[in-house]
Amino acid sequence: MKPNSSPIEREEIVAKVAVPAVEAIAGLSRPLVVNDSLGRMTPANAALWNRRASKAGTGRIWPEDGPYDGVLIRLLHDKSAMTMALSAVASRMDKGAPIYVVGANDEGIKSIGRVLADHFEEIETLDTRKRCRIVRGYRNASVVEKPRFEDWATSCEFGVLDRVCEWSSWPGLFAKGLLDPGSELLISTLRSQQGKKAIKFNKPVLDFGCGIGILSAAIRTMAPEVSLTAIDVDAIAICAAERNVPDLDARNSDAWSAISGSERFGLIVSNPPIHTGKSGDFRVLDALLAGAKNRLLFKGALVLVVQRQIPVQKKLEEHFKFVEMLAQTTRFRVWKAS
Predict the structure, then answer these.
(1) Element (H, E) at 98
(2) Which of 14, 262, 284, 335 is deepest in the core (most CB within 10 A)?
(3) What's the Cα-to-Cα distance from 268 to each of 4, 244, 295, rounded to whole Å?
(4) Which class would CATH give 153-337?
């Protein structure tokens, strides 16, 4: 696998390498497949757990109750999320049941044995091809110390718009559940624009890719009465956002799938992710820009923050008549489009 492979190319290659593991679990009575974003690794008789929404449906925060007699898991890019996922499936597996982990070498699959060792034994690499590998282990008799979703909840205090709050989070969420510099710049810019009356918050607002809800919380502080909707591809992010922002209409969504064709907003805000693991990934950004204009009310605006090196101005001008840069730092720029 080439290091600069696109996210889709990467998943296609991993799915091809995973064929022996797919065939192995297909012969079991009740197997589970985890993190199969393309649907290429899930036999007809297998249960599926994806925490991220896709065209196949919404995500789930936790796998359904087992027991499972075998598991195939596509390596998650975030190590903490992978550790949580392994504990989740281990708590629902029969003793002695096999687990197969498939992933690329540059994603960390070579060191997965150290993480598997908590709940699995006889760990070995079964196949190595296309700079990917399949690793197999068997469920041991150890007790899972954190078998429930709530066991993995974390909290952290930090301030947004001069208000210090306690924020709920889980492993694998954007910026590790903290206030990242991009969101901080976007929030300060929104407050500045509100003071100048250049951006109004008197009509419905959409937080696209909300994470744990930091942007939504800032808007709620600036405009307590505004109707506020938030969407994110990660079901766990939606769970966190609902806890962190009162009265938030939070929806698990693959891009725009959870927004009906008739819904319109006076303001759409976003700090879109532009990486998937090791690869640059503009799919979320491109989906946001392609769909935002038709979801805006008359005189509505899209305001987003992106890293300086991302050629977002040209992308914005393909969809919007008016585009301007509102603020910048050495790392980020805030753009407004209408």
Answers:
(1) strand 98-104
(2) 14
(3) 31, 19, 9
(4) alpha beta
C-beta of residue 121 within 8 angstroms of C-beta of residue 135: no
Tokens of 269: 């805000």
pLDDT over 90 at 317, yes or no: yes
- Judged by DSSP in three states, 156 sits in strand
**Topology match between the domains 7-149 and 153-337:** yes
pLDDT at site 46: 97
Q: What pLDDT band is residue 279 in, cutting at 50, 70 and 90?
A: low
Provide the 3-class DSSP secondary structure of residue 86. helix
Beta bridge pairs of residue 98: 138
User: H or E element: which one contains 238?
Assistant: helix 235-244
Q: What percentage of the chain exceeds 70 in pLDDT?
A: 97
**Token output for 131:** 């700079």
Please provide the CATH number assigned to the domain covering 7-149.
3.40.50.150
Distance CA 194, CA 119 (A): 52
Q: Which residue has the tokens 């992308």?
A: 315
Give the model confidence (pLDDT) of 176-187 as tens digits: 999 999 999 999
Distance CA(58)–CA(70), nearest Å, equals 23
Task: Single out the residue of 43, 20, 23 nearest to residue 32, CA to CA.
Answer: 43
Phi, psi of 109 (to 5 degrees): -65, -25
Summarised one tens digit per residue, pLDDT across range 59-114 is: 999 999 999 999 999 999 999 999 999 999 999 999 999 999 999 999 999 999 99
Residue 133, helix vs strand vs coil: strand
Residue type at 44? A
The sign one gets for the Cα dihedral 85, 231, 302, 321 is positive
Tally of CB atoms within 10 A around 44 = 5
CA 305 to chain centre: 17
Q: Buried (b) or exposed (e) across 197-229, using 16+ Cβ within 10 A?
A: eebebebbbbbbbbbbbbbbbbbbbbbeebebb
